[in-house]
Amino acid sequence: MSKSFIASILAMTWLCSCGQNRYSTTAEEAIDSEIEAPAKNSLKQLPQNQDFERFIYSDTTYASATGKGITIQNSFPKGGSIAPDGTQYVDSLGKRYAFAVFWTRIINETNASLELDIHFPTDSFAIFTPADAYLKLFLPTDPLTYDKLSSYNYGLTEIKSFLDNNFHKAAHLQRTIHSGEEHVFYVATLSYQAEGTPRAGLFWKEHDLHYSMSISPNGSGTIPLGKLTFKK
Hints:
Layout: H1 3-15, E1 23-26, E2 56-63, E3 69-75, E4 78-80, E5 89-90, E6 96-108, E7 114-120, E8 134-138, H2 159-166, E9 171-177, E10 182-192, E11 197-205, E12 208-216, E13 220-230
């Protein structure tokens, strides 16, 4: 049996199936009062021939007093390796990492524009239970379109070169999301000494954004990443 085939089987075991344990919530805390403005541009219509919901792990709506809100959707993981042949990422020191890619979609249905400001530091995060385990987060800049959802790693390519070039670099994402618009972006993860079933997602509390990730059975943790605020 070839090494690449064995690696592919292990990667699929690490990720498990893409349609399990989806949940949908409405945040208990209401959004602060909105800045009134005319609604712009209707939300993008999802392709009718795609079963979009099967890719979503969490779907949370933060409701405002006007009944309109902000929705944050987080995907299930995909990949398990940086290439379909089971290739795993190895850094310059020879350390081997488990790879997974996710995406987050922020939908603004309020009457105000939103300022999205996310920072991924160069630091590793020791959020898992093994003493020497850690997580690294990356922000690939490739555009994610809905036709890529069924592709390996959600269509993300040239992963090795991206990780090599950005392994010791911080990342910053800043966007204005106008009323009636959305923004979708990738989040790539490398976990060291913590393999299992990964789940992850961005959530919002009091304008602060946090990224939560768990790898069963190796524990979980939450990382502060930035802010999502109404544009003044």
